[in-house]
Amino acid sequence: MALMEIRDLRVVYRMPDLGLEVKALRGVDLDVERGEILGLVGESGSGKSTLAHAVMRILKPPARLVSGKVILDGVDILSLDQSVFDREYRWRRIAYVPQASQNALNPTMRVLDHFFDTGKAHGLGDRSEVERRARELVAMTGLDPERVLKLYPHQLSGGMKQRVLIALSLLLEPEVLILDEPTSALDVVTQAGILRAIKQVNKKLGVAIVFITHDVSLMPSLADRVAVMYAGKVVEVGPTDGVIYEPLHPYVSALISSIPSLYADVASVKPIRGEPPSMVEEIRGCPFWPRCPYVKEVCREREPALSSVDNRKVACFLWSPS
Ligand SMILES: Nc1ncnc2c1ncn2[C@@H]1O[C@H](COP(=O)(O)OP(=O)(O)OP(=O)(O)O)[C@@H](O)[C@H]1O
Ligand SMILES: [Mg+2]
Q1: Could you tell me if the CB of 279 is within 6 A of ligand 1?
Q2: Contact yes or no for 234/199 (Cβ under 8 A)
């Protein structure tokens, strides 16, 4: 059994004033294995952050959870009382660093005080133990704890803030850590440092990491497995080398071919033709069919289920009859 099983997760954003409903997640199925680094990639608007919010139970109106389960170690965390989830799961078993959260650090508090605060909020009263752990975690992310723990947030660079947030999120030793676009606003050198930090904490602590990004080119050097989202669903998931170098889903092939940094020859880069579907309209058939070079009759009629093909899963009628 996987550590975390996401099943048929559906979320809408309801805007009755506009008479609109955005179907942001249309039935996401995804497993997170113990101790792995799972890359969750997809274009802007494909539903990555909404998925993280639903799993962390922080969806806010106009978002609404329609249905689905998130089973962590045998327990459906979406059906728990909010107070039980907050006390026993958030931070303790599953932690999250949101997209663009560098400014979440309190400007009036030194870095170490953030650790004390978080520890106190979760019943870690022993300050010397919290400090010991803060040093260990900050060092694990490649920063000098002697220096960094004394600093105020404005004295940290963007990359340092991101590392501090990662260290802080690990204070209560979660089994799963979701990082939403942790490297997006950073230059390439800083980005490489963050990736090293993530690999280091994954290896030393055994924490499973879900790394959300729109940047597929980060995957080969980072992730054990990759899941690709398109229009509110996972369309392909499997070991990194397979998904990146021999993708099965035509969307994933098109996505990989559209990325200059994965290929030496920039001239061979091909943009994906067409546009992603509107998430407001009802989607009939496969969401990728209007852009797909292999479209068949059935693709316009029905949406393919995510089905096993060797050691991965893919939602495409080219590979599976259902
Ligand atoms: N507060 C909101 N109100 C209405 N629609 C929203 C809201 N937040 C997100 N959406 C819509 O839900 C869909 C999924 O958005 P989401 O932010 O989850 O995508 P994403 O994959 O994280 O994109 P990005 O790469 O830009 O962060 C999009 O169509 C988006 O426009
Ligand atoms: Mg996002």
Answers
A1: yes
A2: no
Token pair for 18: 């506009």
Q: Is 169 in the pocket of ligand 1 (CB under 6 A)?
A: no
Task: Give the number of the atom of ligand 1 that is nearest the alpha carbon of residue 214.
Answer: 25
Quote the tokens at residue 136: 């260990």
Question: Which atom of ligand 1 is closest in space to residue 99's alpha carbon?
Answer: 27
**CA angle, corner 100, sides to 22 and 85, nearest 5?**
70
For each of the domains in the chain, give its residue range(s) and CATH number, in order of start.
4-249 (3.40.50.300)
The SS3 of residue 249 is coil
**What per-residue string of b and e applies to 49-77 under the rule 16 or more CB within 10 Å gives b?**
bbbbbbbbbebeeebeeeebebbbbeeeb
Nearest Cα to Cα of residue 45 among 287, 242, 284, 317:
287
For 125-270, where are the alpha helices, taking DSSP H only?
A: 127-140, 145-148, 158-169, 188-205, 219-222, 240-245, 250-257
Which residue among 9, 10, 14, 22 is best mutated to probe the pocket of ligand 1, counting the most ligand atoms within 8 A of its Cβ? 22
CB of 190 within 8 A of CB of 170? Answer: no
For 175-206, what is each residue's pLDDT tens digit?
Answer: 999 999 999 888 999 999 999 999 999 999 99
| Closest to 185 measured CA to CA, from 161, 153, 205 | 161
Chain segment 83-122, per-residue pLDDT in tens: 999 999 999 999 999 998 888 899 999 999 999 999 999 9
Query: Helix (H) and strand (E) counts for the chain?
Result: 11, 12
Copy the structure tokens of residue 201.
């904490």
Ligand closest in space to the Cα of 20 = 1
Give dist(CA 217, CA 5) in Å, integer: 26
